[in-house]
Amino acid sequence: MVSQKLKDISLTTFKWILICFLIGVLSGSASAFFLVSLEWVTQFRIQHDWIIWFLPFGGLLVGLSYYYWGKSVAKGNNLLLEEYENPQKTIPFKMAPLVLLGTLLTHLFGGSAGREGTAVQMGGAIADQFTKIFKLDNSERKILIILGISAGFASVFGTPLAGAIFALEVLYFSKINFKSIFLSFLVAYVAYFTVEFWEIKHTHYSIPVVPELNFSTIFYTVLIGLLSGFAALLFARSTHFWSSLFSKNIKYPPLRPVIGGVILAIAIAGFGFTKFSGLGVPVIVDSFSNANPWYDFLLKILFTGFTLGAGFKGGEVTPLFFVGATLGSALSLVIPMPIALLAGIGFVSVFSGATHTPIACTIMGMELFGIQPGIFIAIGCTIAYFSSGSVGIYKSQIVKGAKYKLYQKWL
């Protein structure tokens, strides 16, 4: 009897290690292909800036593809969260190629969007296919969704610790199986090293000077945390507002990104706002050494919210990095702290507020910037989390706990 139990445990352990390896390799490879493709379309757009006038055409392709082939996966990241909370049916694999194509078209023609949503959706779609292969039940299927989110996030940003914790924290107030914790870390590292194997390079940031921790620096860190939380709230509300506006006023879904594309093309190309196209990584990198105009973060919120609300595809996280880094950079004109530190705090704090994931964002900050600014990053992420409101970028995310009770009491 004991021997049989040990054998069953060994087989179960082997099964999940195998699943983690398969999901990590497949999701990591998908992210590697996506990152290479994204870099190519971004460089093509930069070298041929006239292509932005074809943004309505790109919007039409995205709109038609989802209307005729992707209705069941149109919810994107929210579908993953919903299927975790209330499992219904396996996520169709077509989510992966559809979001990949939609995101590349969005970036090729100059829409303002990110990349994490694409990687997470590809990871989730890939992972959920193992439900049928290994004949898993609903509780085990929930683990697969966590693994897909973890692998996608870790591989696209090169932050395995943050990816593993993000997958758990974004679902924190749902029931999480204890073994999901170990497996989330395992798949995150497999996905991360898969991208490394494909020799894909991630953007590096640096905070060369970290001041002494005292009352003054803590006060300023709390202040930027508050402002980051408000920026996160504005970002989330903006995205939901534009999505609702387009849905109510344009009944035929494929027309939404077409009309949105016309407006965006005129605004971006006609008025010289090309720095807000695509990911905006060069602007993010520059913000660590040069102060940005105070309105840059507001314009990125506007352009990204409008782009995604109109029906274009992509993620929200890199635009959130843009918003936070440029906000922190602009504050260096009035806050006597190193510009790189302010940009770094804003970088992860706005993300923390918009996704309700302060622990993952703190870890991510230390993975990207080093251990030295860790205490400042932790303070900024925590304050932003509490000051960003009760609604984040993911409508289907469950928010409870201290933050939820605070807003229930006072709002």
Overall mean confidence score, pLDDT: 94
Overall spatial form: globular
Uncertain parts:
none
Helix fraction, binned, reads over 70%
N-C termini distance: 58 Å
In terms of DSSP E residues, the strand content is under 5%
Sketch the major β-sheet. none
Secondary-structure-derived class: mainly alpha
Count of DSSP strands = 0
Order of helices and strands: HHHHHHHHHHHHHHHHHH
Radius of gyration: 21 Å
Q: Count of DSSP helices?
A: 18
Q: Would you write up a description of this structure?
A:
- The chain is mainly α.
- The chain contains 18 helices and no strands.
- Helix 8 packs antiparallel against helix 9 and helix 10 (215-249) packs across helix 15.
- The termini are far apart.
Key features?
411 residues, mainly alpha, 18 helices, globular
Task: Draw up the topology in text.
Elements: H1 2-47, H2 55-69, H3 77-85, H4 95-108, H5 116-128, H6 130-133, H7 138-157, H8 160-169, H9 179-197, H10 215-249, H11 255-270, H12 281-287, H13 296-309, H14 317-331, H15 339-355, H16 358-369, H17 374-387, H18 401-410
Helix pairs in contact: 1-4, 1-5, 1-7, 1-9, 2-4, 2-11, 3-7, 4-5, 5-7, 7-8, 7-9, 8-9, 8-16, 10-13, 10-14, 10-15, 10-17, 12-14, 13-14, 14-15, 15-16, 15-17, 16-17
In short:
By secondary structure, the chain is mainly α. It is built from 18 helices and no strands.
